[in-house]
Amino acid sequence: MNVGYARVSTGEQTLDLQLDALRQAGCGRVFEETASGAKADRPVLAEALAYIREGDTLVVWRLDRLGRSLPHLIEVVAALAAQGIGFKSVTEQIDTTTPGGKPVFHVFSALAEFERDLIRERTHAGLAAARARGRTGGRPKKLADPKQLALARALYDGGQADVATICTTLGVSRATLYRALKDHPGSGTKA
User: Fold this and answer.
1) How many CB atoms sit inside 10 A of residue 94's CB?
2) Residues 9, 36, 109, 187: which is the catalytic one?
3) Which residues of the chain have pLDDT under 70?
């Protein structure tokens, strides 16, 4: 059985064009959803995927109605294939139930993998360039300012305030205060 899935992003858009195309493609049941394609949580899509059974075919009007991105689309179609469920896109004329449709989707899979590799490569290059300029990633360290560390040291060593007051004044946790005092020992330390 052909099972259709139609989606629009907002309530102002209409599903009519998609519904007509899905009925013409022979869909016995059509799931309709109004949700942004960027949202990971699409309950009607989850319902459609739970409804469909081995030997069925999930039909969409266009590829972008199903997947948030090419990798997500490939992930969904691969999961369908693993369950013995076909996939068909009416507009792009992709049908994984035919011998010609399977290679097309393998090309998409290869392109998605290539895209992931490029993103990974650019990320590593960007991080290396930042490190070469002396920049490190991550959250800025508390008590990294020498003046603030000196104040913490003076308050702690002088016994002028208890640890809780020092932490509140400097906006740090006890663990951060103790770690900073230990890592940067001064004269007459208690840490």
Assistant:
1) 19
2) 9
3) 37, 39, 105, 186-191
